[in-house]
Amino acid sequence: xxxxxxxxxxxxxxxxxxxxxxxxxxxxxxxxxxxxxxxxxxxxxxxxxxxxxxxxxxxxxxxxxxxxxxxxxxxxxxxxxxxxxxxxxxxxxxxxxxxxxxxxxxxxxxxxxxxxxxxxxxxxxxxxxxxxxxxxxxxxxxxxxxxxxxxxxxxxxxxxxxxxxxxxxxxxxxxxxxxxxxxxxxxxxxxxxxxxxxxxxxxxxxxxxxxxxxxxxxxxxxxxxxxxxxxxxxxxxxxxxxxxxxxxxxxxxxxxxxxxxxxxxxxxxxxxxxxxxxxxxxxxxxxxxxxxxxxxxxxxxxxxxxxxxxxxxxxxxxxxxxxxxxxxxxxxxx
Length: 334
Ligand code: NAX
Known about the structure:
With about 325 residues, this protein is of the alpha/beta class. The protein is built from 12 helices and 14 strands.
């Protein structure tokens, strides 16, 4: 069998990791013939719980799981990794200012960027999930200058999956028949779930989402709001943030980045902007529709029409990302 793919998961003692690690170790991400070595990272307060997770992974008796390393040292966790999945971040606590949250996360993603720079494979693919995910990814890339910044991404696939699920339910079709619905911008309330290029497969025909749903007011109003507020709705109901669905979305993101997207379909990934696409300024980690080839190289889908309605949405989420970046750079400078 081939050499194991080496995957670091940070925040390994947390909620998302609990589902995600099983999914990776059982072959759902890298395929049924690809062994995996897992390198788990958490902070010292999480070490004992992480050990319990490692014990359970062992007890799953999974044929593809070649090795499990657990550590609280990023230099050990990121050593020679092919993939780094960064779940661990400073959570927002009651009464904490946005500013303090961002400062704490700048510290974490600086340390992890520097460690990736020193010990990871130069071909490492990074996905940041810990919030604020887009800006954390940008900071991480900034501190890993020897790794191309296009290899740093942030997760918006959960938002895409939520959007597709809402449309499937509204249209009364199976969720896999909803295609090419994408998320633009930040993983936050300003994100823009866009149906303009999406279609629904019905009796072997591809019907544009807008025609199938036939309710413009819903698509431009309640739909967007429901998707953007879904995380808050889960917290209100569960008293915990999304974990199962987040893990599934991370698995989708990494699987597609590793194995490629189906012909004719695109998916959402927050990636570094180069200033040449859709009027997004350079140097932001911004969610775009992308296609990924079988070798795992992604490309932002070019040439999609942007309506005036969409333009305003793209610009609003750009403004928020610029503000987050400015604040992050402020913390770096001081
Ligand atoms: P948990 O609080 O259950 O787990 C986080 C784990 O990370 C803890 O075990 C903690 O000890 C560890 N950790 C903290 N700082 C660390 C560091 N510097 N190095 C290594 N480990 C560290 O959170 P969970 O529910 O698993 O969520 C993880 C992150 O995902 C959160 O920041 C959350 O906000 C974010 N989310 C992002 C989503 C997205 O779509 N981008 C959606 C789901 C989720 O809300």
